[in-house]
Design a protein that fits this description.
Helices cover 33% and strands 14% of the residues.
Amino acid sequence: MGDVLGDVADGSAGDADYGVIGGGYSAYRQPDPRIARVVADALGGARTVVNVGAGAGSYEPEDAEVVAVEPSATMRAQRPAHLAPAIAGTAEQLPFPDGRFDAAMTTFSVHQWSDAAAGLREMRRVTRGPVVVMTCDPALVRDFWLHEYAPLVLDTEARRYPSVEAITAALGGSCTVTPVPIPADCTDGFNEAYYARPERLLDPGARQACSAWSFVPPELAERYTADLREAIGSGAWDAKHGELRRRPYLDGSLVLIRSVPEHGAP
């Protein structure tokens, strides 16, 4: 979940500085148990797992030996006590020998790496079995209702996320792409997690925990928020999107990509 630039004091290595925006991240980005099951199933019971861009440790399997790699000191400091400390490092230069792990994972992170293809190739290099990438499909990001109120936020997200095709090409092997339904009460507060709870995006902390908001000038973000607040207060949002409040899951842009080597790893 962390980024992967090297010129900020925090150590964040992508295009967002988690020393600035990451302080309250773990309060808003709690792993959702339903999404966690999807990730765990994709890891296939692996005994050793490397989590790249691990952030605060969301979705790490607790029944495996996990080595977490995270460049941001702010994010490493937010790992809960029951998880092993993360090592400082970036996806593009993983400090492990070939085939060191049974499986590899990265969640909500690949879009923040300085060279996504290089990082994905590194994940494949150090992994004998499945490489699991949870990300958003940029072709679907702008379909979310937030684009009506905060277009530059989702335009930024769509620009930053690598395409599904680019990810599968970098990983090689046999790849599957599975849409991940987003529950209405999702505890992992990325933008689409609030599809049925637009009021949550009026909270500055919730917005700060979605890194795309940090690329929008503050005065524009304030205008976007005011527009959304007005639409909610006037009933305009509910008139247009209110049926989403009754929808238990959203089929949005969230996808899980799983690659296994051609030699037939599980």
